[in-house]
Amino acid sequence: MNLEYDWLPSVFAAMMGLSILLYVILDGYDLGVGMLMALAPKEEKDRMIASIGPFWDANETWLVFAVGLLLVAFPSAHGYVLTALYLPATIMLIALILRGVSFDFRAKAKSSHKALWDACFVIGSALAALTQGYMLGQYIMGFEDNVETFVFSILTATAVAAGYALIGACWLIMKTEGMLQARAVRLARPLVWLTAAGIAMISLATPYVSTRIFERWVSQPEVWYLVPVPVLTVLSILALYRLLKAMPLPGDRYYRRPFMLTALLFVLCFVGLAYSFYPYTVPGVMTIYDSAASRDSLLIMFFGAVFVLPMIAGYTVFAYRVFSGKARDLTYD
Amino acid sequence: MEFSDPFVLARAQFAANITFHILFPTITIALGWLLVYFKLRYRFSGEDHWMGAYRFFVKVFALCFALGVVSGITMSFQFGTNWPGFMETVGNIAGPLLAYEILTAFFMEAVFLGIMLFGSRRVSERAHTLATLLVAIGTTLSAFWILVLNSWMHTPAGFEMRDGVAYATDWLAIIFNPSMPYRLVHMLLASGLTAAFLVAGVSAYRWLRGDRTPSVRGALQTGSWLAAILIPLQILAGDLHGLNTLEHQPEKIAAMEGLWETERGAALRIFAIPDEEERTNHFEVAIPGLASLILTHELEGQVQGLNSFETHPPMTPLFFSFRIMIAVGLLMLLVSWLAVWQLRRKGEPENWMARILVAMTFSGWVATIAGWYTTEIGRQPWLVQGVLLTQDAVANHSGITMAGTLAAYVLVYVLLLIAFISTVFYMARRAGYQDSEAPVSMNLPEGKV
């Protein structure tokens, strides 16, 4: 491995990490809203859908980009990971299919079928969230085929689903008002604790299953740079809970803050996990350097990405500004 | 070939996924441009009925787009889960092409789709038309990149093999590989025809139900004319693509033509039952010399038979899928020209004509899929012609896993296909109850999503 070659795999790993993080936050909130629809009265469902309508498609594209980067930049890791996760990945894909199409069908099919498509939407959202959490658990445990891995993966599945439901509730607090917003606040409160429990469990279990990760987290002097991560995590959970307890506030004050805090929480979790696993693409098996594609191919993609990613960021921000403010009913004209 | 063989199941699964997936991009690539056309007609003429046509077909577009996106995500996973050998061998070439598709096309179409569908009250009319245009450009760009990759798998160029792995040497040669221009044009025209017959068929359905507003009339005219203009172009493009295939993959042509032995003055077999065991045809109906004339432009030209190739695709599926494509194409020619002739003479279709158009609504799908089966099965046993065998790329999953996931996919796809077709016609029926020229909210009586 020469030094000149070094930076490309790291850049691609960073890009992939960024798109996974963006995916988890962005599709996290719309999958969360999908799950919360199970608890919503009929008259609120349309408004909930309207709040995510213009965004879900672009949000899901980050998953395609993340998997695409894994496929094109780290082909052998892609083969290894997705072969190991074949069944949960298939279930997730079918769930995402159901979720995505129900969104459109519910509005266009016969009214008598609407309830059926709504059910597909809820089930699709929940299954997608659960299988993603399950796959995270499998990844952390290094895809081992034993009972502990299975139990742990079930717990991570619940934790990720709770996290998505939380950020979904916070999205609704930001994008809606009145009864629906108040209901979202009430739902968000217990979800904070469920999510916090999930984060605590993963944080404790990860160093326990891998001595390599344990050593990374206790070695000097890195540990001092890392202290802010758990500290900020605890602080943001507490702040989030206090805020939610006080909400809704007069004049809709701080209506964006729960979403921001939850997103921050997701970022912190991501940084913790990324630090634990870097530079491995498959824990304990291969690193980003072992699994990277050829330099020329990475370079040609790098130039494309450098040129295009700012454009994507630009028009994504534009789209969010177009649909800023409280969600209104969606119409095609 | 055992059906419980994981290799066969992996191929069946890929075929099921890509068959389902291609249905929807085939519509959206061209329907996006038709929507731009409707919007521009409205902008320049001020006639409301063009907006009526836009508003109806944008719903069909949204539905197709969602189905295309979600089934496309499945594809991006399947490359790795079922065919890891593909990326291991040619990942250095396939990777950047797929990455460019995601970067230049997927994000753009997804983001602007939101504005196109739900943003018309939040942005200016001009910005909304621009968003519609960008979505159309996005779908077309996406078709461009994926067809570059697909064509490269048929006619690989611009690379060298080192230790069994392909490395790019010339990106321009990779992108403009020998079959790319033909395949791209053939596919874009196929999309145009599919969208044209969809628009004409759905409008004819509304027409038959007594919904004779100017927007229905306009869409019916547009669809019929577009089909009538594109079909001769498609026949020409298909012929040129065939000649290109003859140059680069002659074994595929031999299988399509039903030719076992190399012949001078080869006959065009209109019908036959190929026998793969005996390597001969039964019940042959043929026109002498015509195959040679079409392929070599000489009556006595020599056409290679399947027996002269060491590796070659199976004949039966190619022979029949090719003929289905040709038959649907000829039917399209007949129907679209008759429809246009009638529309020119009387300004409206006879009822029987409208019924035929309704029957032809999804004819583009049949021809497109038959065409894809011809070209893709025609590449077998290669995954990348001359570089990688399909059987060397397959993942090592158990037959049970493969059969279970295949069954789940097929079940979901069949149900969604039924839901899609019935919803399109349901929307067409319901549109008739509303004044389609007035601002119509996208769905239910309450007007909410």
Radius of gyration of chain B: 23 Å
Outline of chain B, from the CA principal axes?
Answer: globular
Task: Report the uncertain regions of chain B.
Answer: 435-449
What is the mean predicted local confidence, pLDDT of chain B? 89
Helix content of chain A: over 70%
Q: What is the alpha-carbon Rg of chain A in Å?
A: 20 Å
Q: What portion of the residues of chain A fall into strands of 2 or more residues?
A: under 5%
Write down the secondary-structure element order of chain A. Answer: HHHHHHHHHHHHEEHH
The helix tally of chain A amounts to 14
Number of strands of chain B: 8
Strand segment count of chain A: 2
* Terminal residue distance of chain B: 49 Å
Quick check: average pLDDT of chain A? 87
Description:
The complex is a heterodimer of chains A (333) and B (449). Chain A has helices at residues 3-36, 42-52, 56-73, 75-84, 86-108, 114-140, 147-175, 178-209, 211-218, 222-226, 228-246, 257-277, 288-291, 295-322, and strands spanning 280-282, 286-287. With 333 residues, chain A is an all-alpha fold. Chain A has a two-stranded antiparallel sheet. In chain A, strand 1 (280-282) and strand 2 form a beta hairpin. In chain A, helix 3 crosses helix 4, helix 5 packs antiparallel against helix 6 and helix 11 (228-246) packs antiparallel against helix 12. Chain B has 449 residues and is mainly alpha-helical. Chain B has 13 helices and 8 strands. Chain B has helices spanning 6-45, 48-82, 84-118, 125-154, 171-175, 180-208, 214-248, 250-257, 290-296, 315-346, 351-359, 363-377, 399-431, and strands spanning 159-162, 165-168, 263-264, 268-275, 280-287, 302-303, 382-384, 388-389. In chain B, helix 1 (6-45) runs antiparallel to helix 2 (48-82), helix 4 packs across helix 6 and helix 8 crosses helix 10. Chain B is globular. In chain B, the strands form 4 sheets. In chain B, strands 1-2 form a two-stranded antiparallel ribbon. Chain B has a two-stranded antiparallel sheet with strand order 3-6. Chain B has a two-stranded antiparallel sheet with strand order 4-5. The termini of chain B are far apart. Mean pLDDT of chain B is 89; it is low at 435-449. The chains are: A mainly alpha (333), B mainly alpha (449). Chains A and B meet through helix 2, helix 3, helix 4, helix 5 and helix 14 of A and helix 2, helix 3, strand 2 and helix 13 of B.
